[in-house]
Structures are given as C-alpha cells and as structure tokens.
C-alpha cells in the first residue's frame, strides 16, 4: 500500500503549507513519496512552482477545488461556476501536476437545488476531461445541508455520468459517520471509487488509534487492498511530532 500525506490536516502545528511540504520531505520515520492538499490556494502558484522545482521527489496526488460554498450563496450557472471555481482550480492542478480534483460543492435547500448542483458536477467533469483529470465527489457528514450526504446517491451520480472521469472519494471517516456497515458499503462502491482517504472516527485522528470506532487494519487489509492500488490519503489531524511508524506495517511490499 502507498500513502500520501494530507498537508492541510497533518502537521498542524506547522503554520504554513510550504513548511509542511518541506517537513514531509524531511520525515525520518516514514518516507513519503506523495502528498495531497485541500487548500493549495493559500500559496501562490509561483511560490509552489519554485518550491517544487527545488524539491522534485514528492508527487502531488489530489487537490480540492475551491469550495463553491465559499464563493457564492447562490447556485451559479456553469459559466459563473467556471469563472468562480474551475478556472483557478485548473491553474493549480496544472501547476502541481495533479490528476485528481475533489469537487467541493455547496449546500442544497431542496431537491431542485440538488439537481442543479449535480448538473454542475457533470459539466465540471466534462471541463476537466480534456486535461486527463479525474473528478471526485464525496459525501460529507460535517455540513448539515451539503448536497451530497449519501454514498448510495454518489454511486447513482457516477453511474449516470456521461464521462468516465467522475468517481467517488471513499473516506472512512465520512462513511462511518453517515452509514456504518463499512464492509458491505465498500463492496458496493468498488467499481466507482477513484480515491481513498482515512481517519479515525469520531475524532478524525490517527486511523489506527484504538480509541475509535473503525478497525483500520481490517479496513485497509481486507477491504481496500484487494481492489485499490493507488495512493491512500492520510486526511487526519495530528502534529509534526506524532509518529508515522504505523504506516510501515502496510508497506507496498507486503
């Protein structure tokens, strides 16, 4: 198994994302080959480019789009959505050479809103397809009215897509909070998953913390490993002093 450090949540005692990037390179207890990031927009494209040119050993796997709920209180037209979110997201995706973008959308007050948002998702996938970028949708358990709060609905959305670059973000934290029954839910999602992230429930801390609801050793070894060979995102909260040695038991050579 291969893991990428989410520099938006890990090492949260280090204030700046670029400093966290350097910290990943300098870790001694686990050698990371890749990272992902929710909010690369806090740093300018040029600053990222300069940092990457001097430190080329880390691969960027995933970034989030600019969250639509932070850009407007309305559900925009696609042209407006492209201007508010997609153009800048694409600029960063190209600069960082990522091939996965999590489409962070907005809240829905009714079924009409939800349908409009889903239509934006489909158009966004078409927008990114020529650039060979996979779009990911993720049910969220932490926003009360978020348009997507069901993995079953996420499957239906992906099934109905006219493009092949729309997939599901499988996050063990949200999956447990929204549904539980991880074994059956994962089996149901296997054909539709484009990326996996992990963290313990309910505190979004280290996945193998035993003071939590999910046995991630079972989750990773029995459910994820048989069908998913790409990087697994470590999207959990921890400081730079926390040990990463637990990752070695899930080495790619196992």
Structure description:
Strand 3, helix 3 (78-96) and strand 4 (100-102) form a beta-alpha-beta unit. The chain is α/β, with parallel strands linked by helices and 254 residues long. The radius of gyration is 18 Å and the shape is globular. The model has no long low-confidence stretch (mean pLDDT 96). Helices cover 35% and strands 15% of the residues. It starts with a strand and ends in a 20-residue tail after the last strand. The chain has a single domain (2-249), classed as TIM Barrel (Alpha-Beta Barrel). Helix 2 (45-54) packs parallel to helix 3 (78-96) and helix 3 crosses helix 4.
Helix share of residues?
Answer: 25-40%
| Integer count of domains | 1
From the helix content, strand content and strand pairing, which structural class follows?
Answer: alpha/beta
Shape: globular
N-to-C SSE string, H for helix and E for strand: EHEHEHEHEHEHHEHE
**Overall pLDDT:** 96
CATH architecture group name: Alpha-Beta Barrel
Distinctive features:
single chain; 254 residues; alpha/beta; TIM Barrel; globular
Write a concise synopsis of the structure shown:
This protein is an alpha/beta fold and 254 residues long. The protein is built from eight helices and eight strands, in the order βαβαβαβαβαβααβαβ. The chain starts with a strand and ends in a 20-residue tail after the last strand.
């Amino acid at each position: 198994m291969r893991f990428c450090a989410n520099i938006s949540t890990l090492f949260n005692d280090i204030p700046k994302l670029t400093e966290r990037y350097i910290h990943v390179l300098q870790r001694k207890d686990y050698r990371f080959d890749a990272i992902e990031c929710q909010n690369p927009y806090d740093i300018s494209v040029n600053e990222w480019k300069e940092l990457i040119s001097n430190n080329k050993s880390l691969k960027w796997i995933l970034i989030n789009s600019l969250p639509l709920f932070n850009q407007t209180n309305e559900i925009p037209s696609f042209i407006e959505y492209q201007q508010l979110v997609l153009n800048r997201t694409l600029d960063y995706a190209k600069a960082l050479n990522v091939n996965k973008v999590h489409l962070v959308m907005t809240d829905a007050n009714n079924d009409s809103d939800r349908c409009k948002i889903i239509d934006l998702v489909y158009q966004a996938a078409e927008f990114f397809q020529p650039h060979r970028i996979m779009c990911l949708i993720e049910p969220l358990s932490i926003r009360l009215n978020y348009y997507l709060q069901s993995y079953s609905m996420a499957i239906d959305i992906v099934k109905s897509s006219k493009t092949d670059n729309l997939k599901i973000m499988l996050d063990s934290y949200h999956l447990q909070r929204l549904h539980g029954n991880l074994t059956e839910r994962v089996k149901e999602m296997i054909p539709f998953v484009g990326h996996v992230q992990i963290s313990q429930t309910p505190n979004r801390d280290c996945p193998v913390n035993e003071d939590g609801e999910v046995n991630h050793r079972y989750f990773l070894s029995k459910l994820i490993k048989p069908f998913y060979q790409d990087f697994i995102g470590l999207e959990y909260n921890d400081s730079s002093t926390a040990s990463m040695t637990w990752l070695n038991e899930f080495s790619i050579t196992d």
